[in-house]
Amino acid sequence: MAGPTDTRLNTQEEITARVKALEAMLIEKGIMTTEAVDRLAEIYENEVGPQLGAKVVARAWSDPEFKARLLADATAACAEMDISGLQGEEMIALENTDDVHNLVVCTLCSCYPWPVLGLPPNWYKAPPYRARIVREPRKVLAEDFGFVVPDSVEIRVWDSSSELRYWVLPKRPEGTEEMGTFDLAALVTRDSMIGVGPAASPSS
Amino acid sequence: MNGVFDLGGTDGLGPVVTQENEPVFRAEWEKPAFAMFASCFRAGLFNVDQFRHGIEKMDPAEYLLTNYYEHWVHTVEHYGEKSGLLDMAELEERTRFYLDNPDAPLPQREDPELLAFVDAAVKHGAPANRDSDKVAQFKVGDRVTIKADSPFGHTRRARYVRGRTGEITAAHGTYLYPDSAGNGGPDAPEHLYTVRFTNEELWGAETAEPNGVVYFDVWEPYFTLAS
């Protein structure tokens, strides 16, 4: 077995062949099929992604009673909109306000609320974010995400160490009072629901 | 175990590098690597915590330098070998075959039940809450200190919260216990809580950022009442 002193990384050709060989063996063992691979890829490429979370947020911005239900029990509120499932069996939505900014991380692995955000971006899974966001969130937001949170706003970092899945209800942008949920949803970015950016402004 | 995967508070890893319009899967091989999780979970090769622990046991240098889905491949291989399902010599041989013949086809098999499982699993997930007659020993508002000792094996008690004191802000009921289930034991449900730590408590008053807190979920065996 290779040790840390003689680590050799796979090339893309090597990892491609390795995964194909592993897949072939798992197919022959009756565990996988290429159809199941295609179906899972299809689901997370086209069906389950941040567009679902954006619909929930837009509704919460527009419907105070729904927002209250979302903050009380995000899993049940999302289920009302037929949004549920794997890696979001129990979800908790965190409301950003003028005084509080929430953001989400998983320092130990890469836990992420799949039913509302889909699969995580690479930076969320990579070491720098997981290492630094609990220690210097203000600095990381400002320097790496271009998002300055004033010192007067408390930053609450939620480290997803259990199977509870946290995500952020961002602040409704100014100048959106007349907008309907369809247009509002277009302003809700993936990053705003992780808490590393604001929702988009209607003027931008 | 104390390992490099336990990244919270580690310095010197450089900036967060984001990518505009990153595709969900950055290479074709990531799709089967991703699908192996659900398929092998269904086959009983591992539970979610064992899956994580297989990744935690990777060569640490490789862990830090490889793409995320390579971690998934590693843990599938780990449990495939451990359970006797996979012959690693055969895996090496077939890898060489596909390196020499990258366009050679995969074996084909029909499995409508697996397809149905995929859709059902995505929609309904695999909840981690577990019934237990254990009575909660702590309540919201309690000040608690995370145990400082370092266990071997799988745990979610990250190093940066060990020995630190915070306040319970939520009590969630009983959930399967990763320190048991992730190490091959039973679900062994324990009460789960959320604890809030101030930045000053975690990092020291000299270096902590102002006006900030960290919330961290802990199972009852992870902590004691603060003295």
Automatic annotation (TrEMBL), chain A:
Keyword Magnesium recorded: no
GO MF terms held by the record: nitrile hydratase activity; transition metal ion binding
InterPro entries (alphabetical): CN_Hdrase_a/SCN_Hdrase_g_sf (IPR036648), CN_Hdrtase_a/SCN_Hdrlase_g (IPR004232), CN_Hdrtase_asu/SCN_Hdrlase_gsu (IPR023900), Nitrile_hydratase_asu (IPR018141)
Keyword terms, alphabetized: Iron, Lyase, Metal-binding
One protein family per Pfam: NHase_alpha
Gene3D superfamilies: Nitrile hydratase alpha /Thiocyanate hydrolase gamma
Domain Nitrile hydratase alpha/Thiocyanate hydrolase gamma: 14-197
Binding site for Fe(3+): C106, C109, S110, C111
Top-level lineage group: Bacteria
Reactions performed catalytically: an aliphatic primary amide = an aliphatic nitrile + H2O
EC numbers, comma separated: 4.2.1.84
Secretion signal span: none
Family membership noted in the UniProt record: Belongs to the nitrile hydratase subunit alpha family.
Name this polypeptide is given: nitrile hydratase
Source taxonomy: Bacteria, Bacillati, Actinomycetota, Actinomycetes, Pseudonocardiales
From TrEMBL, chain B:
Domain Nitrile hydratase beta subunit: 127-224
EC number: 4.2.1.84
Coiled-coil ranges per UniProt: none
Superkingdom of origin organism: Bacteria
Domain Nitrile hydratase beta subunit-like N-terminal: 1-109
Family per similarity comment: Belongs to the nitrile hydratase subunit beta family.
Function in brief: NHase catalyzes the hydration of various nitrile compounds to the corresponding amides.
Protein name, per record: Nitrile hydratase subunit beta
